[in-house]
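subagent[fold] <- orchestrator: predict structure for attached chain, return tokens only, no commentary.
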Amino acid sequence: MRLLLAKAFTDVRRRVQTAPRRALLVFVVAIGALCGLTAVAFHGALALGRRLLVGPALDAASPWLRTLLVVALPAAVAALLGVLVPRLAPRAGGGLALVKQAYAAGTAPLDPRTLAGTFVATPLSLGSGAPLGPEGPTVLLTSGVAVLSARALGLPARVLRGMVPLGVAAGIAAIFNAPITGVVFALEEVVGTASRGVLGGSLVAAVAAAVVQRQLQGGLRLLPATPADWRDPRELLGFAVLGLVAGLMAGALPKIVQVLRERLERLTRAAGRHDLAARGALAGAAVGLLGLASPETLGIGYEPISGWLGGGGTAHQAGVAFLAKTLGVALALSAPLVGGIFAPSLFLGASLGAATAHAALLLLPAARIDPGAYALVGMGAFFAGFLRTPLAAVLIVFELTGDYALVLPLMLAVAIASVVSRRLLPPTRRRSSTGAADGPRRATRWRG
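subagent[fold] -> orchestrator:
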């Protein structure tokens, strides 16, 4: 049996190498499907981590036990990751920054140890309540799977490099059931320019991954939203103000991270070679305390986002969630907690929009203001301001929610947020202050 499998693998490799134009399309479809399977399995591990860790902590009957567990879990996990990850898989959890490095300077960083470390460390981190998302680690895994598959077939280096954006597009498509967003994000954030080869391959891989996700998980919308509408052109002023505030906060967040990281480094300097573990324990405990004030901020946060998109929440609830999540994300990015920043960007934008709309209704009860519409527009504006991908920001809102009625307010707010964020923190300063393109935490010394 082993000989038959080896012979079949050798035959496949020979066919791909000798007939690239005919076989490469089939190979890309297979890679997209494999990336979809990887993303689904990874999200199963994330759900298991939450069920085993922060889920039972939040459900504890005793208030004292609940407080203890919610504070102690992220502190203990962050300290553990600070000890183990630098020794066992130094690049684990590198996320989009590592993916971009692999595309620009060679695919060597996407090695099996990094992929295995990311697959294990991320469920522990997010399962403990870290206020981050699964998207950066997911695209790291899917890009790594694509590269390792091409490498196993002995394909040339230029093809290995091309597998990186394919993996990114397939990973985003599988996470959000949003293949168009996956392709656009890969081109905007990883490639930087569009080429027919990369565009075509990314499209095929993204569709294949989305098909796998639909077959295994039903293809339900990740963030269902009630239909929203706007009729009075004067409402555009409110959406423009929301875009301005979202851009200011998105541009300020990397600066907050830098300040917190420097403070934590000074506080833990006495720990010597265990300073990273000590920093993780302090930041994790602070994340837990913030979670006690606003439980919605613990973990990924798709459920509260859906509530705000449906018009729910209050000015106080959404405002507290926005402030707590902002500090929680900044602390997590300053510590050895593993996770992405897509979901936090969506959370922060939706909570900011909901808080703004509910506060406006308190001041102007007779005004025709839809909190769900403001949450949706805020979600896209903050995403664009922080990730600097305006096209993907518009598309991801449409593909996630299926609501196209707010296209003009959304585009206006996204444009304003993008301009304001870039003015507040230009790309060169942003890279130096964050240490990476996809998250400030990459400046920690074990990120590789």
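orchestrator: received. Logging for downstream: The chain has two domains: 2-52+89-217, 235-443. The CA atoms of residues 132 and 339 lie 5 Å apart.
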